[in-house]
Design a protein that fits this description.
It contains 4 helices and 28 strands. By secondary structure, the protein is mainly beta.
């Protein structure tokens, strides 16, 4: 799925200076990205691109976040989605909240994911893949909602062997927050001693979070990591800054604590990761370090070195 929009707001003094406990401090609020205009990726994914790789230095190790839906699809006979296309140099992470997506790629990876499931594809040295609605969802229609996140690979791993991980909802630990404030599904990394099932090349935390109206919680992240929070539904105050539906906040590398208070029942994703402070040169579905590597990727794809898919499933 796709590419960008941005707006800057200054961090509040409260968010940059307030201390939490003896040794941890609130992370500063650097930027709030408002709801961008939507567009279609293929005919199956109506997305809003919360950030793209043109701002990679600010959000590293993350490259792109597409929010697909919420959208209601009518029943159909022809499957919708995105047909065969290549990638090199990074990973794609697709999280489904409603609807179903089928994936297959030229490395032999593939599978179907539904509500609560995740697919984690390492493009690495290069592959082609397709992402389509499942035949059953195509015929039944219904609500569709998903996130696709692109995660960068460091230079030394950009040409790693491609691989695919299907992560089912039942394999993702769900952790209750204190005072019945909500829950956290740990997709990657760890939260309160619970480890997520995703295998990652760079240290990353992905916390799929629910907060109840009127409740709040503190989240502690690794010092020096870049941290983002994206609200899919509801409204929160995070480190002194209000965030509403389909908005994303960038937090500084300083501090170790995020304080979130929910003004409404809220669904949000918290992303935190170790920065990859290397050059980023992207062109469409390829993200490398230098322009010459992009030219090589295009040549390799055109020469069939990333493989091909057979007939449609």
């Amino acid at each position: 799925m796709s590419q960008t929009a941005t707006t800057t707001q200054t961090a509040s003094k409260e968010a940059t200076s307030k201390e939490i406990g003896a040794t941890s401090t609130l992370k500063s609020v650097l930027n709030v990205r408002p709801t961008p205009q939507g567009h279609w990726v293929g005919d199956g994914f109506p997305v809003r691109t919360m950030f793209g790789y043109d701002t990679a230095a600010a959000v590293t190790p993350f490259l792109l976040l597409d929010y697909a839906g919420p959208h209601h699809f009518e029943p159909a006979m022809q499957r919708r989605g995105v047909g065969e296309h290549p990638h090199r140099g990074f990973e794609t992470v697709t999280i489904v909240y409603s609807g179903e997506v089928e994936h297959r790629d030229s490395s032999g990876g593939g599978g179907r994911i539904g509500p609560g499931d995740v697919q984690w594809m390492t493009a690495g040295s290069g592959l082609v893949h397709e992402e389509m609605h499942s035949p059953e969802f195509t015929m039944s229609g219904g609500a569709f909602e998903a996130i696709q996140l692109w995660v960068n690979l460091p230079a030394k791993l950009k040409m790693t062997t491609p691989k695919y991980q299907t992560i089912l909802n039942g394999d993702i630990p769900e952790v209750a927050l204190p005072d019945s404030a909500g829950t956290v599904r740990v997709i990657a990394g760890a939260f309160n001693g619970h480890k997520g099932p995703a295998n990652t090349f760079t240290p990353i935390d992905l916390w799929d979070t629910r907060l109840a109206k009127g409740k709040g919680a503190e989240f502690h992240v690794t010092p020096g990591h870049n941290t983002l929070a994206f609200v899919m539904k509801g409204a929160i105050v995070i480190n002194g800054k209000r965030l509403k539906e389909a908005e994303l906040v960038e937090l500084g590398r300083d501090g170790t604590t995020i304080r979130i208070d929910a003004e409404e029942d809220t669904k949000l994703m918290i992303l935190s990761g170790e920065p990859i402070d290397e050059p980023v040169f992207g062109y469409g579905p390829f993200v490398m370090n230098y322009q010459a590597e992009i030219r090589q990727a295009v040549n390799d794809f055109n020469a069939g070195k990333m493989g091909r898919l057979g007939s449609t499933l």
